[in-house]
Amino acid sequence: MQVKQFLVLPKLPERISTLQELARNVWYSWNWDLVKLFIRLDPEIWEACYQNPVEMLARLPQEALERAANDDGFVASLDRVYRRYQDYQSQKKWFEQKYPEQNGKERVAYFSLEYGLDTGLPVYSGGLGILSGDTLKSASDLGLPVVAVGLLYRYGYFRQFLSSDGWQQERYEENDWYHMPVQLVKDENDQPLRVTVTLDNAPVHLQIWKVSVGILPLYLLDANIPENSSKSREITSVLYGGDKDMRIRQEIVLGIGGVKALKAMGVEPDVYHLNEGHSWFLTLERIRNLMTENGLSYEEACQYVWSTTIFTTHTPVPAGNERFDPVLCHRYLGQMVSDLGVGWKDFLALGRVIPNDEKETFCMTVAALKTAAFNNGVSKLHGRVSRDMWHNIWPELPREEIPISSITNGVHSASWISHDMKELFDSYFGPAWADNAGDLGVWSQVSKIPDAELWRIHNRRRERLVFFARKRLKQQLTRRGASQLVIQRAEQILDPQILTIGFARRFSTYKRGGLLFSDMERLVKMVSDSDQPMQLLIAGKAHPLDNPGKEIIKEIIGHTTKDNLRNRVIFLEDYDINVARYLVQGADVWLNTPRRPQEASGTSGMKAAMNGVINLSILDGWWVEGFSDDTGFKIGNGEEYESVELQDHLEAEMLYNALEREVLPLFYDRNEIGIPLRWIAKMKASIRMAGQQFSTGRMMIDYVHNTYLPAMDAAVRMQADDYQLTRDVTAWMDRMNRSWSQLAITGVDVPDVGGTLYVGQKFPITINVRLGEISPDDVQVQIVSGHLDSQEKIISGKPLAAVLNSDGNGQDGVYAFSGEVVCRESGRFGITARIIPQNEHMPHTIKPKLISWW
User: Fold this and answer.
1) Final residue before a domain boundary, out of 90, 110, 143
2) Based on the domain organization, do 306 and 159 belong to the same domain?
3) Which helix (H) or strand (E) holds 75?
4) 321 with 358, same domain?
């Protein structure tokens, strides 16, 4: 059967025609004045469409559109919002003001497997996607030259509902992309632009959809087109669904297909930012393009790609790092690797910690770490954990020098701060505060807000959260077939005046969603206390294949049905952006209980803190940096345990103690007019801390300074003169690799100072080295000194560059370098020396195997 296709659009009256343009830019998701206009059109349809303005305009009766067009107040408000939108699109932003010499082309390509932009665009599952979405929004606010790439999922992530016994069920709803804020990319003939990726010797055709995120484009690849086989059409069906075969095909489409899609649209970025290792295969496509189009050798192309690639790792849990069986890799990538002229074993070595270990599978994280000059974790603690996890890639380096830095995550403040709180900030920060993403000092003005006014706004948000939870619970009970009496009782659950704890995240065992239920007697006592009661709102999904995570949800649901908890502990099904906003804006306390150090960052607590919600958390992820006695509460002191059982037992006790002795007493400590002044002081400190330190505005500025600008600079220099510097650096690296084995430290001369030294004492060191064919200009000889541990190893050693001596050098390739050591602290002290490569044209020269110790 043949079907002739048409696209039917709503017919908007001329006076409100700009709504169509505004609905198709996700800018609406962080602009409450525009959202209010959509709600004003019809609040019930707005909610029924999952807050998707494109679908809403399509479903509105024509008379509703005509009525809005004849409403002068509505039109005037729309005109004001549209002028703001036009100003946002055209105004000079932070990046252009600070770096006017950088041209305006899209120079950084950001790749992620998921993007959490808004409820009405369901191509996300959880924290990684929300982070990606917030990243794009702040990149737009700052005017960064970024283009983003992802996949368009036919079903997206699953919708969650619970059976009567609390077992998680999954339901997949098909997305109608013609009723979502995406637009099909067309070619010059007004036909869908398509690119092709070869998988298993068969072509897979991909069409491209564009999402406008403020001033930035996000391109989503779609394999669900008639030209593809049914198997190929399923590649972009479900986020994180299917087996390893499906995952590798998805990730090849994302990486290789993404580079091809950008090229087909005439977008050729200089720098690529891999958000997690899922998109690493793009590296192969970049190498292939450099070889075929620019005449570079494989080694030269690898050198250029390494210098212009940024990799952000998000998981400290080994199982969270994607691995593929070499047989599967060969099935889908064997031909491409052969075309690049690379031996198969050499390719597999890229994805192995131990290159020649044939039992090791191919790890995307390892491959990314080896092929990116700029690597980072997502909090300071996570950076340290990542250096510990992957130190065997650089076995000759001390762990603190492993080239994995950290840039702590953030959240997009305009997307997560409640509109009530934003209006309060407008009054005391100035109305333009939200438009200047680069001004972090504005948050210090939170001290100006009167305590009573802040408390009034927060009480309103708690009330809205309670009303939302009641409505949501009624819907859940109705769907499960509960009796009318039970449904009516849902109107009475929760108390909008008492301390409310929010706990919402992915239900994985290490996040310990059930820790608060470890001692039911103490929990019931706190929940039902007549003087200092509390209530708990819980939400979150377990991965469809994570049965232990589902068991935790089931256990919690079992507790919520008990009479002594029924009205004070509620589980909200189908956690998404909309539910998250109510929780982080309306709770009093945000609870987080991961097993340290398995939480890479955690951003929900940042969202809560910006709304004045106080964090009560394990000192893991971001909270290690955010916590102080002024900003919140901690569970423990950052201990790490050998025994999981012991850790859970002790930290459950610490959690109960913190609630009983600190949190509840402080919340209910009121002055004569019922205001908790000390609690509000903590709220203000929390808002200031989160706004200044944990916004994606601050995060993206860090990425610009630490990675984007250096990588963009490297791209310009290495492209010049037909990639001459790329060729030179590659030849230099080849010479280093071939000649490094000839190099050695033949002696370290330390003056006879006796066995005892004193703090502040200095003494000279001379290092004799044999360089063979390597020039002294190509190396840096370093003195490393510091405290000794019980194994005679230097800990926290500080390398100091030695200087080439001017006399008597070069005979038989032997040179002398000298430097001075200072004894800065008392204790056992050690000195050694090493040689590393040195090249000013590389971001760094810390390469595996290119380091020689005395």
Assistant:
1) 90
2) yes
3) helix 72-90
4) yes
Indicate whether this model's pTM tops 0.90.
yes
Shared domain check, 157 and 27? no
Whether residues 524 and 569 share a domain: the answer is yes
- Burial class from Cβ neighbours inside 10 Å (0-12, 13-18, 19+) for residue 92 reads exposed
Q: Give dist(CA 471, CA 490) in Å, integer.
A: 8
For residue 375, give the 3-state DSSP assignment: strand
CATH value at residue 276: 3.40.50.2000
CA 726 centroid distance within chain:
31
Q: How far apart, in whole angstroms, are the C-alpha atoms of residue 206 and residue 201?
A: 16
pLDDT tens per residue, range 539-569: 999 999 899 999 999 999 999 888 889 899 9
C-beta separation of 374 from 815 below 8 A:
no
Is residue 419 a part of any domain in this protein?
no
| Measured distance CA(376)–CA(374) in Å, rounded | 7
| 500-537 exposure pattern, b = at least 16 Cβ within 10 A, e = fewer | bbbbbbbbbbbbbbbbbbbeeebbbebbeeeebbbbbb
The Cα–Cα gap between 555 and 786 comes to 51
Write the single-letter amino acid at 76: A
Contacts of 116 (CB under 8 A, 6+ apart): 123, 124, 126, 129, 130, 131, 132, 133, 134, 577
Asked if the bond preceding 597 is cis, omega within 30° of 0, the reply is: yes
Amino acid at 619: L
Q: Are residues 502 and 629 in the same domain?
A: yes
- Strand 762-770, strand 744-749: pairing: antiparallel
pLDDT value at 199 more than 80: yes
Give the tokens for residue 586.
């309306």
Tell me if 135 sits within 8 A of 409, measured CB to CB. Answer: no
162 in a domain, yes or no?
Answer: yes
Produce one character per residue of 757-782: b if its CB has 16 or more CB atoms within 10 Å, e if not.
eeeeeeeebbbbbebeebebebbbbb
538 φ/ψ angles, rounded to the nearest 5 degrees: -125, 140
List the CATH number of the domain containing 847. 2.60.40
Residues 387 and 519 in one domain: no
Q: Does 448 have pLDDT greater than 60?
A: yes
Q: Are residues 461 and 316 in the same domain?
A: no
Read off the pLDDT of each residue in 702-714 and give the average, rounded to a whole number. 97
Q: What is the pLDDT of residue 6?
A: 56
Domain limits at 149?
94-409+704-718
Query: Which of 350, 298, 287, 289 has its CA nearest to residue 324?
Result: 350
CA neighbours closer than 13 Å in the CB half-sphere of residue 419: 9
* Domain endpoint, select from 34, 68, 90: 90
Q: Is residue 738 part of a domain?
A: no
pLDDT 10s digits, 62-99 = 999 999 999 999 999 999 999 999 999 999 999 999 99
**pLDDT interval class at 754 (50, 70, 90):** low
Query: Number of structural domains, the chain?
Result: 4
* pLDDT tens by residue, 599-640: 999 999 999 999 999 999 999 999 999 999 999 999 999 998
pLDDT band of residue 431 (cuts 50, 70, 90) is confident
Query: What is the CB-side half-sphere exposure of residue 706 using CA atoms within 13 A?
Result: 20
Mean pLDDT (whole number) for 227-247: 94
In whole numbers, what is the pLDDT of the chain averaged over residues?
93
Top pLDDT among 351 and 319 is at 351
Could you give the CA distance from residue 167 to residue 161 in angstroms, rounded to a whole number?
A: 8
β-bridge mates for residue 169, sequence order: 161
18 φ/ψ angles, rounded to the nearest 5 degrees: -65, -15
Are both 338 and 208 inside the same structural domain?
Answer: yes
Residue 3 maps to a domain: no
What gap in Å lies between CA 616 and CA 536, rounded to an integer? 13
